[in-house]
Amino acid sequence: MALVSMGVLLQDAVTQGYAVGGFNVFNFETLSAVTEVAEDVKAPLVVSIPERLFAFVDAESLCIAVMRAARGSSVPIALHLDHGHTFDGVMKALRWGFTSVMFDGSALPFEENVKRTKEIAKIAHSLGVSVEGELGYLCSYGESIDNLADENFVKADQVAEFVSRTKVDALAVGIGNNHGRYRGKPKLDYDRIRELKAMAQVPLVLHGGSKLSRTDFQEGIANGIAKVNIATDMCVAAISTIKKELEKNANIHYVNLMLNVKKGVKESVKKYMVAFGCVNKGQK
After folding, report:
1. How far from 87 is each of 94, 104, 142, CA to CA, in Å?
2. What domains sit in the chain, N to C, each tagged with a CATH number?
């Protein structure tokens, strides 16, 4: 099966009442971990590569590996640019064959966010590529979730205007969620999710899914979330596995260490796929 548009996956998720997992991959080990789990449980998959990773790895080669994995998979897979912050970064993703791109202009003034997102959406749509935008404030890595005030959350009237003017296919929203590790107890505003869904008329995306509870996911999905992003917990699973393996055997062969790391990441990914209700949703 070839790569598909993320928009196609999310529309099916909305129709059937589940969420697709958007899993960030950082190397070939994490890529094979998420694709193997998706194949095992027959779940649709969004493989995400963040723009910030471009500075550290050969992202173009990683993209080629994603495409090869998709061709050999029996489940639908989308290749998504996560948190594209620059025009050049998004254009690279389009040239490399991404089937979905995100432009994150959430830190910009509303009008500037609309302007830049609209420009990217026009280009991407001409190539058959879906676009995700973002509105609202999400706490940064390590920042306390208790710092969030109501004015940081997305407003329904803004959502309707943003989607109408930019023509995005999906929208990431700030509704009490947090990037990275949570400090404090997350308090997702489910009523606001439902209100935003009614106004947006496009699938909603929840960033910062790591460490949320199964109840959080179920409530979020029931009220309009169609994709949940996971990155931090995959890193935590990898690091935790490395520490445990080195404690057991400081002279472990690197190949064996990586095999165990992959196993640890797979366990984390499977847990989330089950929680999102997407198991067996990738069968056609």
Report:
1. 11, 11, 28
2. 6-276 (3.20.20.70)
CA gap 71, 67 in Å, rounded: 6
DSSP character at residue 224:
T
Closest by CA position to 90, among listed 75, 105, 78: 105
For residue 82, indicate whether it is catalytic: yes
- Kindly state the tokens that stand for 12: 């099916």
Whether 44 and 75 have beta carbons less than 8 Å apart is answered as yes
Q: Which of 12, 82, 169, 189 is catalytic?
A: 82
Q: For 209-248, how does the pLDDT look when each residue is reduced to its tens digit (9 = 90+)?
A: 887 889 999 999 999 999 999 999 999 999 999 999 999 9
Q: Calculate ∠ Cα 2-5-7, nearest 5°.
A: 150
Retrieve residue 237's tokens.
């699973």
Q: What is the C-alpha separation between 237 and 24, in angstroms, rounded?
A: 13
d(CA 207, CA 224) in angstroms, rounded, equals 14
Q: What H or E segment, with its residue span, contains residue 47?
A: strand 45-50
pTM attached to this predicted model: 0.91
